[in-house]
Design goal:
This protein is α+β, with helices and mostly antiparallel strands. It has 3 domains: about 150 residues, Regulatory protein AraC (Jelly Rolls, Sandwich), CATH 2.60.120; about 50 residues, no CATH class; about 60 residues, Homeodomain-like (Arc Repressor Mutant, subunit A, Orthogonal Bundle), CATH 1.10.10.60. About 50% of the residues lie in helices and about 20% in strands. It has 11 helices and 9 strands. The strands form 2 sheets. The protein has a 5-stranded antiparallel β-sheet with strand order 1-8-3-6-9. Strands 2-7-4-5 form a 4-stranded antiparallel β-sheet, with no helix packed on it. A hairpin with a 2-residue loop joins β4 and β5. The protein starts with a strand and ends in an 11-residue tail after the last helix. About 35% of the residues are buried.
């Protein structure tokens, strides 16, 4: 576990995010930008953010940013999870990010103090330092859980909680090509209930949203990079480039190579799947 204070008084600075760690960030004041794989999110204090394990990334801090950041390997973070969680809450805490949730300045300062306490315990090396640091982390994770619209133990999720949880999991696991049944299990509901809630909120099925999100990513890569079609397919988690081409043609009405050529000839975007909830 690694805890670092955030102090950027003179100008913008960047801090690396370690691979495969849970990350807790609190901003008491100022702004920051989270960059991790396809994730690019702005956060402005007072606010907190929570990221599940993922690839390495970085946190870009604006001038005047103040707060703290804590990174914890999976086994340590799991020991800090609140007891008796609703299964859907436990799944969200371990798989779905919580971005830039606004908090009061007092709450943000309390979080920054806890991060500072972890750093002090680790630097001091006193007996029981590991236990003290774990208790501080547990308090931070508990507050993230409270901010993520937790469910009462044994209670079914409300429709808005269900849709929010699905969209968060979709962003995190888009390239893994989860089945809708797996999303439903992760959220603690049946497939039918997930389908119903998402359709009512967005007008589209969960599968249609997942496909639209993949198409949006595919369009950006085809239009904004020089990657070959096979490389685009690999970036999007398609193991078979031919299957990706069929998927793209089914939704865009043309294969990816022709789509790219059409954009180049027109000098502007053709059909776009970028607009989605």
């Amino acid at each position: 576990m690694q805890a670092r204070p955030i102090r950027s008084p003179l100008g913008p600075v960047a801090a690396g995010l370690r691979e495969n760690d849970f990350v807790f960030i609190v901003l008491v004041a100022g702004g920051a930008r989270l960059l991790r794989c396809r994730l690019d999110e702005a956060v402005r204090g007072p606010a907190v953010a929570w990221l599940p394990p993922g690839p390495a990334g970085r946190l870009e801090l604006a001038a005047g940013a103040r707060g703290g950041m804590l990174e914890a390997p999976g086994p340590i973070a799991m020991r800090a999870m609140p007891g008796g969680l609703h299964p859907a809450d436990a799944q969200r805490l371990t798989a779905a990010p919580v971005f830039g949730r606004s908090v009061t300045v007092l709450r943000a300062r309390r979080h920054a103090d806890l991060v500072g306490m972890v750093a002090d315990e680790q630097a001091g090396g006193a007996p029981g330092a590991g236990s003290a640091a774990l208790h501080c982390l547990a308090l931070l994770v508990l507050d993230v859980w409270r901010l993520s619209a937790p469910l009462a133990s044994g209670a079914p999720p409300l429709p808005r909680q269900l849709v929010h949880g699905f969209l968060g999991l979709l962003e995190t696991n888009l390239y893994e090509h989860w089945s809708i049944a797996r999303y439903a299990r992760c959220l603690g509901v049946s497939t039918d209930r997930l389908n119903s809630a998402v359709r009512r909120a967005t007008g589209r099925s969960p599968l249609a949203l997942a496909h639209a999100r993949l198409m949006s990513e595919a369009e950006q890569l085809l239009n904004g990079t020089g990657l070959q079609v096979a490389e685009v397919a690999d970036r999007l988690g398609f193991r078979d480039p031919a299957y990706f081409s069929r998927f793209f043609q089914r939704h865009a009405g043309m294969p990816p190579g022709r789509y790219r050529a059409t954009l180049a000839a027109a000098g502007s975007g053709a059909r776009s799947f970028a607009a989605w909830p």
